[in-house]
Amino acid sequence: MRSIRHRLVGVVAVVGAFVASTGAADPRVHVVRHVRVAPAASSTSVMSTNVSSAGDVNGDGRNDLLAFNPATDEVRLYRGTGAATFGYGRLATLITSDPEARIFPGGTYYSRPGFLAVVNSDSWLYGYGLDRAGDESCCGPVAPGWGLRFLDGHADFTGDGIADAVGVTSSGYGYLYRGRGDANASFTHGTRIASGWATMRVVFAATDVTGDRRADLLGVDSAGVLWIFPGTGKGTFTPKRKVGSGWGGLGALFSARDVTGDGRVDLGAITSTGTLRIYKGRGDGTFSSAVAVSSGWAPYL
Ligand SMILES: [Ca+2]
Ligand SMILES: [Ca+2]
Ligand SMILES: [Ca+2]
């Protein structure tokens, strides 16, 4: 049913975008120009983006994790239960798509924390909101043409308090899409922020890992080096800082937001054998040694 709904809504929205393009400009359709790329699953060099933070979905002050299993179409919510501990994976929703859907971190969708998903052959970007119980409360199309290698829409890079999206194309260009602040979480035309990222194994956003309260980007390159691209809070970035080497063997690396309760952003990782790890952020662009949290996360790679 959800697959059918996606397609129906998508058709209506495509028609709307086409009409808009012949008259008054609809800023949401500008991203159509991006070249479509194959899903990440077809590439052996790209880390999984199937696990990410959802923020605090149930309102208990602890950040929760989302995980998408491409084999079953399930998105599961793992509620934070303590300092870097999580409960069982409760089914939040199903996302069916042709080709395979991908999910990415998002801000709020109709005032509810949730996530972004890119679905179907036209790479429609959808927003999902989750209610306090962890069930899908709202879902709808944002715009077509988001066939990006990486996408992260949960952090504010421009200083207006509205979450922006950062995406990386298959040709290695990084783009910043400013959040418009409307209920359905649409974004403006992309501004190029980087090039040469075609070999990055993962790129993701963090609300702040350097301690200046400005959102940062992080990425692991083909040599396994983890870099921070510090944000200025004005939609630009200062020169990258090296965090360290040896991050290339992970199956996934993402911002877990703060899951230890000290207000500093932590990193989450899934090892190649399916262990969830947390690297506690020190708030100065460095991270403590990994703590193994739980096993059984391999289906999300
Ligand atoms: Ca929570
Ligand atoms: Ca913003
Ligand atoms: Ca920062």
TrEMBL record:
Q: Does the keyword Isomerase apply?
A: no
Instruction: Write the protein's name.
Output: VCBS repeat-containing protein
User: Where would one find the signal peptide in this protein?
Assistant: 1-24
Top-level division of the source organism's lineage: Bacteria
Ordered alphabetically, the record's keywords are: Signal
A Pfam family annotated for this chain is FG-GAP_3
